[in-house]
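Sequence, please.
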């Protein structure tokens, strides 16, 4: 039997591209040798989001205390809120032989890529920019100002896709999930 290799997997793409949908299906279909890294954030939960499952929702003061304690592998301020990955959580899981998937935004991904050059990097892109805007507006969860900020950020993110090992276009969710599974298997199997 082939033993798997524990890897840090960086997964990013613009807001609204469907990262959550892809990952939900991905985790239902793969082995249990990979865990999802839950980020800390200062933003408020969206409908249906659960503290400790989707994010650890903490105050700005708590987050800044953790920054001062060097507790993050990466952190960034995005759309007016902090997001960060707990360094100890990630390193402990890899030490235990589990791969860790970080779903983070571009600035955080670039920080981790510098600190962890052996990480597997995956960028999810929309079929078109217009489709991305449609998806963001279809959420009905943000103000027009917030949507415009996210679209502006998306332009920068899409211009950085070539910095990643893999780029997956999320046009058809099942196809994107299959591509992600193939990448995961290729990168973590000792064959």
């Amino acid at each position: 039997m082939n033993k798997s290799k524990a890897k840090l997997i960086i997964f990013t793409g613009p807001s609204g591209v469907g990262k959550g949908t892809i990952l939900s299906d991905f985790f239902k279909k793969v082995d249990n040798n990979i865990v999802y890294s839950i980020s800390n954030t200062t933003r408020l939960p969206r409908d249906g989001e659960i503290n400790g499952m989707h994010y650890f929702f903490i105050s700005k003061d708590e987050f800044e205390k953790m920054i001062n304690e060097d507790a993050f592998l990466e952190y960034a301020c995005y759309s007016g809120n902090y997001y960060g990955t707990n360094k100890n959580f990630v390193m402990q899981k890899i030490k235990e032989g589990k791969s860790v998937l970080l779903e983070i935004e571009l600035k955080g991904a670039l920080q981790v890529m510098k600190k962890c050059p052996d990480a597997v990097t995956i960028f999810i892109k929309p079929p078109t920019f217009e489709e991305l805007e449609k998806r963001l507006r279809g959420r009905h969860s943000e103000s027009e100002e917030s949507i415009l900020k996210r679209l502006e950020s998306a332009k920068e993110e899409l211009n950085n896709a070539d910095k990643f090992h893999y780029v997956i276009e999320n046009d058809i969710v099942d196809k994107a999930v299959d591509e992600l599974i193939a990448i995961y298997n290729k990168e973590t199997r000792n064959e």
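The radius of gyration is 16 Å.
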